[in-house]
Amino acid sequence: MNRFVFLVKHAFKKWLIIKLFRQYVLNNDIIQADINQTIKVRGCNVKPNTLNKQFEHLMIYYPDFAFIFFWRIRKQNYYWKTWFTTDLPCKIFKSTHIAGGLMCYHPFATVINAKSIGENFQFRNGLTIGNKNNDNNLLPTIGDNVIVGANVVIIGDITIGDHVIIGAGSVVVKDVPSNSIVAGNPAKLIRKLSHE
Length: 196
Known about the structure:
Layout: H1 3-25, H2 29-42, H3 51-61, H4 63-72, E1 90-92, E2 97-98, E3 103-105, E4 110-112, E5 116-117, E6 122-124, E7 128-130, E8 141-142, E9 146-148, E10 153-155, E11 159-160, E12 164-166, E13 171-172, E14 180-183, E15 188-192
Parallel strand pairs: 1-4, 2-5, 3-6, 4-7, 5-8, 6-9, 7-10, 8-11, 9-12, 10-13, 12-14
Antiparallel strand pairs: 14-15
Helix pairs in contact: 1-3, 2-3
């Protein structure tokens, strides 16, 4: 690609980001919480440190954030989406309510179908959250500040409390109390966390 085409594409991409910011981010507390959480956890050093520059940075350099953004605005088939994210094989059911601060690392091979998920939910690749016996009345409820490792399965009408860490490869089929670390198949309590 010659330099002129690159510069035109880059300028158009920045224009799209400004348009998306004004239309979907400026007055949306949930997406703003997603931005803040991702910037904080990933340790991004954005100059100037303004919301619009943070959004631009994440849209350009973090396709996993772009995936969450397009899911939030319900524009999975947005014409220019491929400029920001490759086709990540990940599905979040539209019926799943997720509070602000959603963040993912490499969301490949992930399916999320839950009653609700609280604030500051972090997950990694290979996550399955879903129903039991193909019954969408039997879905998990997940609290605030939950961190989930890679290749985790969370199934059934269970409740995951607040401030929980679920270790990689875990299979969670029973309730998990708040302030705890669980791991294993089936997942068992590893330790309680002291939470301030």
